[in-house]
User: What shape does this take?
Amino acid sequence: MIRVMVVDDQELIRRGLAMVLGTAEDITLVAEAGDGAEALDLARRIALDVVVMDIRMPRVDGIAAIRGLQQLSRPPKALALTTFDLDDYAVQAIRAGASGFLLKDAPGEDLLAAIRDVHADRAVLAPATTRRLLARLTAPGWPPAEADTALDGLTARERDVFLGIVRGEGNVEIAERLFISESTVKAHVRQILSKLRLRDRIHVVIYAYERGIVVPGRD
Assistant: This one.
């Protein structure tokens, strides 16, 4: 059973999330918190597997709380929730240690799947939500491109896979587009993470957009 805590300063949202979690036989809601400070206090006293964390909250916000969770002896996985207007907060949450993020309007089944994924040490990079989020990351006003030669160490095929990850494509989609097997895609992903010294697919996305490796109109 996956033990989950929901953290949001709006009780109505917490109730809605609780209802969604209640539909899953393998997930149980063991705690709720109204801000990051309360969440950290509970996390020190209760065994947790996953924390579903809102980003913007009073007192201690979600980013600070996620960072605080990483200091625990047995830190739970963190799944950050964001809205269209808080994309920069989502990126900061990933940097702070979150295993993924979802938009608040994501369907309930996506939330349940995301909880299962982060619990299984898989970063959450759902294509449907990621593509919409990345469209905003590349909008005017995003930090200017920096010179970067890190991709020089990737093979041509690894670059193709790299761009697929950035677009939010899954392994199957990348395999079909490049006419290679899914296992080959997985091998390329492992090489990309190793060569760029990145933790997971989400960090590949952040890495690419922060450095201007991929910008609107250029693949």
